[in-house]
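This is your field. Have a critical look at both lines of this record:
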Amino acid sequence: MPKNASRAGRLADQIQRELAELISNELKDPRVQLVTITSVEVSADYHQAQVFVTTLMGDGAIDSALEGLQRASGFLRSRLADSLRTRTVPELHFVYDESVERGTRLSRLIEEAVGKPRDDT
């Protein structure tokens, strides 16, 4: 594994931990309640970070949660600057992570398929 790849991975992990704590403890925006950060991807030059999030508030809350997070991105980025030991702090871009929802939907379909008796007539 290249040195930079592992550094980007460590930085992404640290950003994920720090953001999760900041969102749960310091953001007062009601749109951002019950938001979970599933992963973070940092660009090769460390200037951009895609933050993948999911919410337990339902489908209707996704857009408002993303809007609230994007609005708070300047605050979150400045707070990250206090804890990250990097020359630059990546610009944060929040993206809804559909993989959790997709996994739940697939599990439900599998359970339905397995639970139904087969018709061998």
About this structure: The chain has a mean pLDDT of 85.
